């Protein structure tokens, strides 16, 4: 199934701010002629033999992030002689299919939607990864990750960056002052919410407004609760329509989320009642924590960038995040997240060399040292991750007890995942009952 929406957080931020960013293109080539036999090039021996070859890469990663993305492969480029030309575009998701279908595909694309990978495989445009890339990926990534780029038993590319969505933001300073303990189970989370509500403070603040993408933060709540009320296998059935959207299992998860989101005693600290959730910007949704107007805000690791300047994000700081608690600890440690995959439209040897290198721990560690980046690469040294919330994210991703699942709405057909699911959540927050909401979404699933 094809999913054509841009990555959730990028789409949402762009919609909310009304940004129109231009494409960024630049190359990292072999302008500086490195000594291929030098100690600095020893790590790249297996990738050599491609002097003067060019490889193009296209993705949605732009501006400062694009600069940080490219720095770790400069030494690789210098030592192998492969000239890597990178282009980042705000129109990536719309333009990639146009380029591919028009015979102008990039050699490599960083694709954040597994459904889009499947679309290109079905059209015969995507090239299977080489044996070397597959071996590197299997060494560094868990099967939970690799299955999203494995179609009909064929592997097409390793993950690159990642994000963790199963987080609840809070103020460590406030928790310490009030004597609150970070909850580790759902029952503890509800008990803490009741305790805070009894003081007259709203325990939760929530915002799902995001311009044209309004509603997406609520879908993340449902996805996290599906992973906590059901098995990972049921979650997979749900995202592929193996069970209907209005199945009782889905109803249970939605009602569990509603125990917080539709509870007037719990929300919406700093903004109003339950209905204010749909008009509160997701970027501002957690800010009342820093003002003492609410205690908790469920949002992904990338929300670290939304706090006001000067806010200390740390375990002993102004804000930090804890893992969204499980309901039944015996079912493992489910984690909801996202990321992009390194997929190739060409199978020339130099393209395969770049694809393999990007799956390596050498690239992951080189990028991590530059900051503001998370990867599920098992070879990533946690000591190379400086940002505390990124460090926590990596620890969760590397935990063998973690059961990872990709953002559900990014796996669904776009008409549902970025359409009726978003709209249905808005209506649900504004008072529509669960049964009617789920029936509406179910009836929209492409036949």
UniProtKB/TrEMBL annotation:
Keywords, sorted A to Z: Signal, Transport
SUPFAM superfamilies: Periplasmic binding protein-like II
Pfam family, one: SBP_bac_1
Domain of life: Bacteria
InterPro entries from the UniProt entry: Bact_solute-bd_prot1, SBP
Signal peptide as annotated in the record: 1-25
Record family assignment: Belongs to the bacterial solute-binding protein 1 family.
Protein name: ABC transporter substrate-binding protein
Species: Micromonospora sonneratiae
Lineage of producing organism: Bacteria, Bacillati, Actinomycetota, Actinomycetes, Micromonosporales
């Amino acid at each position: 199934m094809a999913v054509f929406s841009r990555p959730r957080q990028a789409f949402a931020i762009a919609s909310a701010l009304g940004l129109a960013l231009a494409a960024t293109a630049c190359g990292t080539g072999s302008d500086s002629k490195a000594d291929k036999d030098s100690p600095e090039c020893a790590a790249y021996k297996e990738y050599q033999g491609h002097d003067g070859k060019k490889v193009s890469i296209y993705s949605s990663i732009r501006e400062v992030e694009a600069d940080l993305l490219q720095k770790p492969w400069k030494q690789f480029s210098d030592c192998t002689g492969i000239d890597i030309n990178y282009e980042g575009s705000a129109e990536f998701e719309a333009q990639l299919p146009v380029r591919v279908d028009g015979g102008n595909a990039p050699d490599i694309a960083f694709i954040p939607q597994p459904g889009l990978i499947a679309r290109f495989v079905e059209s015969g445009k995507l090239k299977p990864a080489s044996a070397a890339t597959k071996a590197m990926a299997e060494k560094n990534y868990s099967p939970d990750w690799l299955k999203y780029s494995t179609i009909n038993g064929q592997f097409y590319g390793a993950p690159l960056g990642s994000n963790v969505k199963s987080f609840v933001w809070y103020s460590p300073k406030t928790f310490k002052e009030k004597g609150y303990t970070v909850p580790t189970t759902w029952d503890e989370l509800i008990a803490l919410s009741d305790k805070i509500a009894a003081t007259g403070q709203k325990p939760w603040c929530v915002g799902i407004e995001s311009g044209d993408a309004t509603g997406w933060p609520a879908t993340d709540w449902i996805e996290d609760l599906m992973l906590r009320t059901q098995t990972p296998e049921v979650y997979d059935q749900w995202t592929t329509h193996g069970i209907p959207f209005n199945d009782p299992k889905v109803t249970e998860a939605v009602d569990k989320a509603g125990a917080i989101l539709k509870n007037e005693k719990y929300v919406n600290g700093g903004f109003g009642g339950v209905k204010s959730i749909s008009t509160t910007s997701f970027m501002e949704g957690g800010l009342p924590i820093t003002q003492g107007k609410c205690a908790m805000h469920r949002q992904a690791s990338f929300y670290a960038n939304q706090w006001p300047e000067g806010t200390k994000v740390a375990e002993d700081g102004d804000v930090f995040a804890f893992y969204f608690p499980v309901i039944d600890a015996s079912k493992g440690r489910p984690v909801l997240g996202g990321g992009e995959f390194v997929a190739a439209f060409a199978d020339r040897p130099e393209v395969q060399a770049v694809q393999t290198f990007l799956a390596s721990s050498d690239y992951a560690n080189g990028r991590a040292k530059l900051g503001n980046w998370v990867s599920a690469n098992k070879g990533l040294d946690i000591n190379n991750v400086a940002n505390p919330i990124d460090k926590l994210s990596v620890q969760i991703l590397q935990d063998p007890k973690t059961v990872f699942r990709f953002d559900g709405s990014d796996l669904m057909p776009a008409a549902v995942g970025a359409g009726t699911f978003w709209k249905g959540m808005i209506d649900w927050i504004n008072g529509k009952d669960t049964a009617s909401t789920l029936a509406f979404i179910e009836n929209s699933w492409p036949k």
